[in-house]
Every structure is written in C-alpha cells, then in structure tokens.
Amino acid sequence: MLVLSLSVTRLNATNFGQCLARVQNGDFGTGKIGATDNHGNVLEDVAQATGLTYGLCIKACGPGQQPFEWLVFSQQFSSWLLPWLALISQLPFGPKDRLDNLESVLLTVGSPMLAAYSLALTVLNGRWIARRFSKHNYPNVRNAVRVLSSLQQAPLRVTNENALLASLIVLPHNSEWWRELIEWLAYPHTWSISAVSSIAWVVTAYIFTVIDSFMGDLTQTINAHGQGSVGSLWLWLLPIVIGWLQLSPKCDEARVRSAVERANKIAYAATDIHPVLVQELTEQRAIYLGFSEEDEDDDVLRRDERVTAPIYNYARFLPWVQAVEEVSGIFKVVSDHYHLHRSVDSGIEWVAMTDRGSGHCSKVHERNRVGNVSQVVGYCLDPGGGATRSRWGPDTFSRIAIASALAFLLQWGTVGAAFLSVYLTPTTGEQVSTLFWTVNTDELNIAGLGCRSASYLLYGVLSTIIWSMLVTSSFLTHYVSTSHFHRDKHLRQSKRNRSCLQIFSSSYWYSAPRHLAIVLRRLAKVLATFNAIWIVVTCVFQFANFFDRCYCNSSVFGRRKVGVQRY
Predict the structure, then answer these.
(1) What pLDDT, in 10s, does the model give residues 257-273?
(2) Interior CA angle at 403 toward 471 and 181, to 5°?
(3) What are phi and psi of 249, to 5 degrees?
(4) Angstrom distance (rounded) from CA 362 to CA 367
(5) Cα(77)–Cα(86) distance, rounded to whole angstroms?
C-alpha cells in the first residue's frame, strides 16, 4: 500500500530539472530572486544559477516530490534493504507464542542498542561465571558452570528449601542429574547454510556499496537513494546475528523446559535415613524454571523474564546473577570442607583418592559425600556465617557498564555513521535524472539537518531511550522482587502488629517502583514498535524519491527557510 500510494504521486510529481531551466530562463524574474551558486550565495544573474533558495524552489517547483520510478525503487530496495530484512530471520527465537517472537524482532530492530546490550551481557556473564567457579574444587563444578550458563535464556530459580540445593550439590547420587541436564540442553542453534547465505548476501551488498562510493560519479554517490547510508544504518545487525550464532543460546522454550523437568525426575534429596528421589518428598525442586509464577503480581511484573528470546537477557540478568551466587556460595563452602578433608558425616573418616598420573588427590570419594539431611545442611553452612550478599550481586555494575559501552559503540558507530554521511552531504537536489551540471567537489560545503539525516537521528535517539527505559525497568523489577514487603507472604496477617505508618511506607516503596517498572516496559515496547516501522518506512521513502522535494533537499528542517536547493 505504501509503494502504491507513492506511485500515485507520480501524477503530481515535480521535475526539478525543468524548474531550474525555467528559473535560468527568467520565467520567475531576474535579479536577486533566490537563484544561488554552489556556496548558497544569491546571484544577480539567474542564468548562472546552480541552486535555489527554499522560497524560490517552492514558487518554481511546488512542494511535490521527484517522480517515483518503479525500476529504480525495486533495484534499490532489493539490493540495499531486502538483504538486511532477510538477515533478521537468522536471529534466535524460541518462545512458543508467535507474538513473543514478533515482539523480539520489533525490539531488536527498534533498539539495536538493547540487542547489543543483551548480547554483550551474555558473553560477559559466561566469562564471569567461569572465573567465579574456577576458585571452587568439588565434583560437578564444571557441570554447574555449563548448566547455569545455558540457562541464561530461561527464568532460572534456585531454592534450598528442604535442603534441596545442598543435596543437589553434595550427594553423589545427583552427579547423573548434572550430566544428563547438560546432555539434554546440548542442542545447537548455530551456523547453517541459510545463515551463511544470508550473511554472505549482506556482506556482498555492503562491499558493493563501498565500491560504488569510490568508483561511481560523485553526483551519483550523493543521490537521494543513499545506498551507502542505508548499508551503514543496518550494519549493526551483522555482528548481532554472528554473535548469537557463535554463542548458540539455549532459547527453545519447549526444549529447555523439557530438559529441566526430565533432569528433576532423577534428582535426589537427603533425608533422615537415606537419599530418596525428590519427587517422592515434595513438588519443589532445587533448580527450576519460573515460567508460571504463582503470585499474580509476579506474573505481570516479571513477564519479560519468561520470554526465552535472547534479547530479553537484559531482564533476566539480575535474577540470574542472584541464582548463580546462591549456587556458588554452597560450592564455595563444600570446597573449603574438601580442602580440609572433612566428610559430610563426621563419623566417616576421609577416604583419599589419588590420581594415578599426578599422584595428588583429585576427587572426592563418594563415602565422603553422604549423610542425613541435618548433616548435609550443616556441611553447606558457612562456618564464618558468610558475608551479607548484595541485592544486585558481585561485579554486576562493571559488567553493565562494559555491556552498555559496547552497545553504545556498536549502535552509534553504525547508525551514527549513516547519520553523518547524510548530514555532511551538501544540500543538493540529489536526483539522478537532473544531474546535468558541473559540480566542483571543493565547493561542496553546504550541509545540514534534513529529512534523511533527521530520520536517522531520531531512530538512534529512540533506540537509546528504549534501551534506558527497559534497563531501568529491569532494575526496578528486581528491586521489587527482592524487597522485604514482596517476600513477606504473611504481611496481611501481620498488619495488626504493625503501625499504619509502617504499613503505608512499606506499601508505597513496593507499589510505586512496581507500577513504574511496568509502565516503562510497556511504553518502551510501544516506542520500539514505532521505531522499527519508522526506520523501514524511512528507507522505503528514500528509495521512492519521497525525500526529493524542496523541503528536504534544502535542509529546511535544520536550516529553517534559509536552506538552498542545490542542482
């Protein structure tokens, strides 16, 4: 419909070449009527004019656009924009709901900074957890790193209720749980022939764009179709797709859910007598996925955490760090006991196992890892009481700062380059069909904020705003989720023991951030949808000569009415 409406405008289109010829012939008068040279200086001799002021352009040519050319449009669209749109299909999806998949696409295109931020966080988290657990020496440490890293795309939940997490880490019966979960999560979302073909297509198109900018005529290089600027505008998508293909995120909701549920069927828990399957004791699990929250408030507040598309890793970052820290804390304590040769059951003497190759103690004997539930709980308690954990987790803000800087550089290094290439382009007519004059490249010094550059700038600014709103929302969500008011399930029953002022204060500091987090998230998604549509429409307008009109070519948007339509 958009292309059809643009093609209809051909009937009322403007031929700028004829306009300039009429001005040079004196049809609109002589003297300083608004005819200019290459520098924008108004000329006395209209016959020497190479440009028009905005007022004269409107008078001579009207407000219409350059004629729509289907052949040019189809060639430009298929060569410079279609490959990038096709590359979007290589982004990792995973949610069962198709609307969630569509939403992840709109968020990616609407905010490249958010997409880059989530990717950078995922990479940094993988490195952080490897370093964090490298200090521990206990069975299944490496398996724990792989499992927790693989579950970055899922709403990871951890609990030590009924000594479930302690049993999962300490008991030798659960070694199979770790191995099997890794195996069931080992499905690839990685390189394929279609992915390589899509990447090769956009790389080739961009290389041709660069070659054209050097090999082509200057007047064709700065034409209205702006293939060079469009290539730079979408260039951010290439490292995003390649990055996710390399990481191979586990984001298939059905497969991840199935893998964790299958593994939990073989999980054991310590009892007063002997270890038994957890499913025989309780419906609770040590490590599980919170796809369905019991609390209705949580269901709305933490919605984005449950969408497995990797772009939502920004929302899962803080809860994931908190879960990892809980697992790491227990591994640290049991690792310390291992170094001191302490068995879970203090009545069992330490059984040393020697590595035949090195002659050193390399692993813990199974006899040293068994005991009743009270012994397992005591074995996992820090003798020193343990340091108070931060609400936000260790090294959190440094990773956020690095991920934000990388995302900023990627977005503004591409979108910013596209903006500058158009902004610094002189305010020429930029239409191929009327480039019949001689232009001195040393004189191309008139630039300004026009329709094209303003569109690019708006896209980049909105992308940054969307990122900041969603990251802020994730912080507020985590704050509310970890607040004492939220955790107190018996608050209503305890109200009679608290003063009205205390109740009001606690309720305010809970409800205000909660509502603000939800509002920011929803508003950001509306902006992302608009921004994604906006940038595609902008490219279509550019290829369809929509911006080839007096207002845009004179950069009136930035120069007001002193802009010059150059020819």
Answers:
(1) 999 999 999 999 999 98
(2) 85
(3) -65, 145
(4) 15
(5) 12
φ, ψ for residue 419, nearest 5 deg: -60, -45
pTM value?
0.86
8-state DSSP, 564: E
- What are 335's two structure tokens? 């690792």
Tally of CB atoms within 10 A around 238: 17
CB burial of 350-373 (b: ≥16 within 10 Å; e: otherwise) equals: eeeeeeeeeeebeebeeebbbbbb
Q: What gap in Å lies between CA 221 and CA 228, rounded to an integer?
A: 8
Taking alpha carbons only, the member of 42, 62, 44 closest to residue 52 is 42
Rounded to whole angstroms, how far apart are CA atoms 458 and 455?
5
Looking at residue 116, its pLDDT comes to 97
Predicted confidence band at 198 (pLDDT cuts at 50, 70, 90)?
A: confident
Instruction: For residue 88, give the amino acid letter.
Output: I
Amino acid at 12: N
H/E segment holding residue 4: helix 2-8
Write down the pLDDT at residue 477.
93
Token representation of residue 264: 């939990």
Most confident region among 1-5, 29-33, 223-227, 264-268 by mean pLDDT: 264-268
For 233-247, the DSSP string reads HTTTHHHHHHHHHHH
CB-CB contact of 450 with 552 (8 Å): yes
Amino acid at site 330: I
Vertex 325, ends 319 and 329: CA angle to 5°? 155
Nearest to 454 by CA among 522, 534, 532, 396: 534
Task: Decide if 67 contacts 8 (C-beta within 8 A).
Answer: no
What DSSP character marks residue 347? T
Q: 563 pLDDT band (50/70/90 cuts)?
A: very low
Distances (CA, A) of 157 to 21, 60, 393: 73, 69, 15
pLDDT greater than 90 at residue 110: yes
* Packing angle of the helix pair 16-24, 54-61 (nearest 10 deg): 100
567: pLDDT confidence band, cut at 50, 70 and 90? Answer: low
Query: Is the pLDDT at 26 greater than 50, yes or no?
Result: yes
The pair of three-digit structure tokens given for residue 301, joined into one six-digit string: 């507040």
Q: What is the DSSP code (8-state) at residue 114? A: H
Q: What pLDDT shows up at residue 118?
A: 96
Q: What is the pLDDT of residues 502-530, one digit of tens each?
A: 544 556 667 889 999 999 999 999 999 99
- DSSP label at residue 288: E
Question: Residue 386: left if φ>0, alpha if ψ -120 to 50, beta else—which one?
Answer: left
What pLDDT shows up at residue 123?
96
What does the block give as tokens for 89?
């299909």
**Entry field: residues in the chain:** 567
Helices (H), 544-553: 550-553
The answer to whether residues 326 and 165 touch, using CB atoms and an 8 Å cutoff, is yes
130-135: Cβ within 8 A, 24+ apart: 132/324, 132/328, 132/394, 133/328, 133/331, 135/332, 135/335
Look-up: residue for tokens 């700028």? 16
